[in-house]
Design a protein that fits this description.
The chain has 16 helices and no strands. It is mostly helical and 291 residues long. It has one domain. Helix 4 runs parallel beside helix 8.
């Protein structure tokens, strides 16, 4: 039981929201998707199994930095693992993932197999030498586009309409922004471990400003391209907070552990509320800017 809980902690339940959120985007309430067993199996996959793949391989190659990271060691931000605990992680990832690959391939065909293999390759390229994109800024941000393939997985598995390119662009920026938030919180342990990221290179304030820029672009896209002032309002409030953070409250100061956990809870709450909204409104499926 203790080992199982540790593996669950590696998958970072507090950070499942990006994969769940992106998986849900292609659905509309009119389709009664909750009546489909396939929907629930896909949703299960994008919780523990997919995140165990993503974060398990990440932790396997990041033990030193995680050991120095005070925000690790919980179910929000992930486990703090010993080398002995990480040795078996790749094997466990394979055991967890392979049955889903086989099942989804049987259901959806060779395109699904290629998609899932591509998602695995992205994680290998991100984490392992000689590629190890995670330490080649700014490419460690750009490769977060891999998260968008969760939406393609959802479309293919559930036989849904392909997402408009405007929606894909928004989801890409969302993935970039979510990753940058983590880099900001990890600057000190990453520097101590000799790990290069965009945040360690340009500093906390400039990284926050980069995140603010992405948030403002996302807000513009939501309000002008999708006429979604509710979701844009979510990001507008976040942007306003970040401006106060950068110029008044924290500036160059790091967050303490309590503050980071509060941010984690706030991110999950906003994710739940915004998930409900996107399913109810369907606005991300219907851009009004069609060029």
């Amino acid at each position: 039981m203790k080992k199982a809980l540790h593996d669950l902690k590696i998958s970072r339940p507090g950070l499942w929201f990006p994969t769940i959120w992106i998986y849900l985007v292609p659905f509309s309430l009119e389709s009664n998707f909750w009546e489909s067993n396939l929907f629930w199996i896909g949703l299960l996959f994008v919780t523990f199994p997919l995140n165990y793949l993503v974060y398990g391989l990440n932790d396997y190659n990041d033990q030193k930095a995680d050991e120095l990271n005070e925000r690790k060691g919980n179910f929000i931000f992930g486990a703090k693992s010993s080398i002995a605990q990480l040795v078996s992680v790749p094997k466990k990832v394979a055991i967890v993932i392979i049955p889903f690959i086989i099942y989804f391939t049987i259901i959806a065909g060779y395109k699904m197999l290629l998609l899932l293999l591509f998602m695995i390759v992205i994680n290998i390229v991100y984490n392992f030498k000689p590629f190890r994109i995670k330490e080649r800024p700014p490419f460690e941000i750009c490769i977060q586009i891999g998260y968008v393939f969760t939406a393609f997985f959802s479309v293919l598995l559930n036989d849904l309409n392909q997402l408009p390119w405007q929606t894909i662009l928004y989801l890409t920026l969302f993935a970039f922004q979510a990753h940058i938030a983590g880099e900001i919180m990890d600057i000190e342990p990453d520097i101590a471990a000799g790990k290069k990221t965009t945040a360690t290179l340009i500093g906390r304030k400039k990284t926050k400003l980069l995140m603010l820029f992405l948030l403002l672009v996302e807000t513009y896209i939501l309000s002008v391209w999708f006429n979604d002032f509710i979701l844009a309002g979510f990001l507008g409030v976040f942007s306003a907070w970040l401006i106060l953070d950068v110029f008044i409250f924290f500036k160059e100061k790091p967050y303490n552990l309590f503050q980071m956990k509060m941010f984690g809870f706030a991110m999950n709450l906003s994710a739940i509320l915004s998930m409900i909204w996107i399913l109810y409104s369907g606005k991300l499926l219907n851009p009004i800017l069609l060029f």
